[in-house]
Structure formats: C-alpha cells, structure tokens
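Field log, afternoon session.

UNIT: design team B
ACTIVITY: writing a sequence onto a fixed backbone
BACKBONE:
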C-alpha cells in the first residue's frame, strides 16, 4: 500500500513540472500541429443537396464518430451514419451505415441498410451509344415556346419506376501487412415497373387540350414500355426481383487515410455471386438470373506538392475500374449497380451520373460489362479552424470516362424473350412500332458505336471538416451531346468520389 501512495505522490508532483515546460501532452496534436479529436463527435445536419439526375434534396443526417483517445486520428474507432431525405424528382434516401476496425479486434466490419425509392429512375436503353438519345422527346419546358412541340412526347419518356432495398454486411481481415482478404453477404431487392403517372401528377390532371402543360399524359408509352414490347426486356425481369449475394476478394491498401488520401494505392479484385428469388410482385420466377460477376479497381494517389509546414497541397488521383459478367445471366436492372467490397456511399450506380462518370446522364451505359476511369488533381487551397473544428477548402479539376466492355446481343434478347417469334430486333421493331417511327430513331447500326468511349470533364469544390466529413460540389460537362443535352450537370454530395 505504501508503494502505491509513493507512486501517486510522485505523479502529482510531476504535473506542475510538466506544465512549466509548456509541452503538449501526448496525443494533443498530430504531426501537422493540429489538435487531435478525441471521444465522440457528432451533430445533426440538414441533408440538403442537389443532383442533376435526382433534383433538390431535403432531409436530415448525422455522422457520429468515436475517436477514443485520439491515437489513431484521423482514423476513427466507430462511425455511424444515418440519413433520411427525399428529392424533388421523387427519389428517397433512407440509410443506416456502421463502420469500424475495432468492434471485432483485427477485423474491419461494415454494416449497411438502405432503402432507395425512385419513382423516375433513368433508362436510356442498352449498350451506350448503340441506343440513341433524343432530348426533344422528353424536353419539357414550362414555356412551350422554348420546347420542340412537334417532337415532345413526355418528360418521363426516359424513366421507369425502380425501388432498391439493400442490406449488406462486409468484413475484412489481414493476410500480410497491407494485403487484406474480404468477404460479404447481402441482399438486393428491386421493385421495378412503369412510372406511376397519377402519383407524379399529384392533384393535377392531364388535359388533352393542353398537352404541353406540366401534368403527364398517362397514355403516352415510355421507352421502358417499348423495350418490353420489342422483347428486349423479358416478363421474368420486368417487375424486379430479390437477389441475395455472396462476395469474396482481396485488397491492397497503402493509403495514408481513407477519406481524401494524399498518397498510396488502393486496389481490389473480387467476385460476386448473386442468386435470384421470385419476381418482386410474385408474378413470374426470376430464378434464371443467377450469375457471377468479376470486379477490379485500381486507385492511385500521388502527392505533387507539399508546403513548408508539411501540408500536402496538390495530389494527383485516378481510379480505373472494370465490372464484367463471367457466368449466368444478369437482369437488366442489376447491370447499373456497381459492386463494391465495402458499402461506404449511398449510391453505387453506373455508368453515368455523379457517382461514376460526372456530367453524363445517370445510367447512360447499361450493359453486361463496363469499364471506367476517373482522373483528377486535388488542390488543397486553404486550411482553417472554427472553434475546435478543423476545416479545409479544395478544388478538383477532373476528367471521367466510361465504356461498354460486354454488350448485350440485342437479337439474342429478342429471340429469348419472344420464344423465337422474332429472330432479330429489326423484325420485332417492324412488327411493333408506330408508323411514324424509324429504327434509326432508337438504335445505331454502326457496331463501332457500342465500344465508343463516353467522356466528360469538369471541376469540383470540396469543403472538409476534421478530415472525415467532406461536402462535395461537382460540375461536369459531357463531350458528346448524346450523353447529356444540357450544357453541364451539377452535383452536391458528401465525400470524395473515390
């Protein structure tokens, strides 16, 4: 007992001596002299965002971090992300995500439960540039004088209804140092169908005498309807389905941090096997859509300039990715989902839009397999503190690219879905099209168009807090107007794209 009293007395005497030296306590500041965050940090924020494909978003979110004693800062011990929001284009976000490398010592665990209802999901056809995009068909304007009224059909011509339910659990362990193994289980539930025009119109009623008013014509067929009629979408997939999956792969990660890294490499290689339950509305079995997919991603972060204070100011970052179908058949509605080993974002949509090829319309590339690239310079313009919080502002000029690697054989789809009634898409089109329509209005006959790259460029603004919470605003422009008739698309989101 006397020994412990002596040690306690010595510790108390040492405190004022340490204070006189005015040296920071261990873990008070990081290597850049910034005060380290400790304990629990959280706040409730409005979920206000904008996406050119989804519209203005309103809701609420919180990201709760536990930094513990700060030894691992800016890494966290636990992260819990909760969001509930809805957009002006009838798209919802309801999500809970948990991430930790410490809950199970030696393993990283990520859990995600998400519901994404979408009353107007984009659908531009199959195989990228093989499917023609006619902006005038959906080009509505509240001022009819600014519309091509001779061509206009409905502003939802390139839409369909698609609700996604996602539940996933992923775990990572170490093989050797930076080489990791990964495994995961989950289920993707798709509820697919025609747009609910009455819901979209709300209290407004369509007036045939005023065809250019905002209310939609419920009798106007959409591209999705035509694809079903022509036999490109089968009865066993037109209503969606439930798809449990198992995933396994490896990753190599030398990044200095996960959010906005300044240096290092992250690459992964994995396989996903997806089974199929009955169709979403129980009308027809989707069991023929069991399939195996292969994914490869390579990210590289290269520091280009570090200032005299040791702060990295310029980073060159790029991401290369590939997703291919290697066995079985995949339903069309799953082929715009980008598989990932860890669920870190709300959206994993591709290709096109603010989560893959910025500036291009969402889901512009829909095929069995695709490849993509994102290239950008990340300029860290200024760092500053407000109260106890650390902030930074950055600029990111970028160039994005996407292309089809495994196209649909459209004739094969028609033969399979019409049970041999039509041998080619052209035959089915001739038998089931409006007299004033031409095959070339919808499809390119040049096979080179299938593999022609889709390219965009633009710039992003980043506002970060405590290195992990990043508000991102990206402005992207397509090089080909077939990818977006607008001058540019604008996105306000959370986090870096990669």
């Amino acid at each position: 007992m006397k020994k412990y009293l002596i040690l306690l007395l010595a510790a108390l005497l040492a405190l004022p001596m340490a204070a006189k030296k005015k040296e920071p306590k261990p873990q008070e500041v990081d290597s850049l002299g910034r005060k380290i965050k400790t304990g629990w940090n959280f706040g409730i924020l409005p979920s206000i965002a904008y996406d050119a494909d989804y519209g203005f978003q309103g809701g609420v979110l919180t990201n709760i971090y536990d930094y513990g004693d700060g030894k691992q800062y800016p890494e966290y011990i636990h992260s819990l992300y909760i969001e509930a929001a809805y957009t002006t284009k009838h798209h919802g976000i309801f999500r809970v995500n948990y991430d930790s490398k410490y809950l199970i010592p030696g393993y990283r665990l990520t859990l995600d439960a998400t519901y994404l209802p979408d009353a107007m999901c984009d659908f531009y056809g199959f195989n990228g540039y093989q499917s023609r995009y006619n902006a005038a068909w959906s080009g509505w304007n509240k001022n009819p004088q600014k519309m091509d009224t001779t061509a206009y059909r409905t502003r939802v011509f390139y839409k369909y209804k698609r609700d996604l339910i996602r539940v996933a659990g992923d775990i990572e362990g170490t093989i050797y140092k930076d080489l990791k193994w990964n495994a995961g289980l989950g289920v993707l539930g798709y509820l697919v169908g025609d747009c609910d025009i009455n819901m979209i119109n709300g209290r407004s009623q369509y007036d045939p005498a005023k065809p250019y008013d905002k209310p939609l014509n419920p009798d106007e067929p959409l591209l999705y309807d035509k694809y079903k009629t022509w036999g490109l979408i089968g009865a066993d997939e037109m209503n969606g389905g439930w798809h449990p999956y198992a995933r396994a792969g490896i990753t190599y990660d030398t990044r200095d941090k996960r959010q906005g890294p300044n240096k290092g490499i992250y690459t992964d290689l994995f396989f996903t096997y997806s089974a199929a339950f009955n169709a979403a509305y129980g009308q027809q079995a989707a069991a023929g859509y069991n399939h195996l997919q292969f994914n490869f991603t390579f990210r590289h972060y290269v520091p280009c300039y570090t200032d005299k204070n040791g702060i990295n100011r310029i980073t060159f970052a790029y991401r290369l990715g590939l997703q291919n179908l290697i066995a079985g058949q995949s339903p069309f509605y799953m082929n715009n989902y980008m598989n990932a080993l860890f669920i870190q974002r709300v959206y994993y949509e591709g290709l096109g839009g603010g989560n893959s090829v910025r500036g291009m319309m969402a889901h512009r590339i829909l095929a069995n397999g695709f490849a993509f690239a994102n290239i950008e310079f990340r300029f860290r313009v200024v760092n500053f503190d407000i109260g106890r919080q650390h902030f930074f502002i950055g600029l990111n000029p970028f160039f994005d690219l996407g292309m089809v690697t495994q196209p649909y054989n459209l004739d094969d789809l028609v033969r399979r879905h019409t049970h041999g009634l039509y041998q080619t898409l052209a035959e089915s089109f001739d038998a089931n099209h409006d007299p004033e329509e031409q095959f070339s209005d919808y499809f390119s006959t040049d096979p080179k168009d299938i593999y022609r790259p889709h390219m965009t460029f633009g710039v992003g603004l980043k506002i970060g807090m405590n290195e992990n919470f990043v508000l991102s605003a990206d402005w992207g422009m397509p090089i080909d107007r077939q990818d977006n008739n607008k001058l540019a698309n604008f996105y306000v989101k959370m986090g870096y794209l990669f």
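LOG NOTE: The CA atoms of residues 338 and 348 lie 5 Å apart.
NEXT ACTIVITY: expression trials, pending approval
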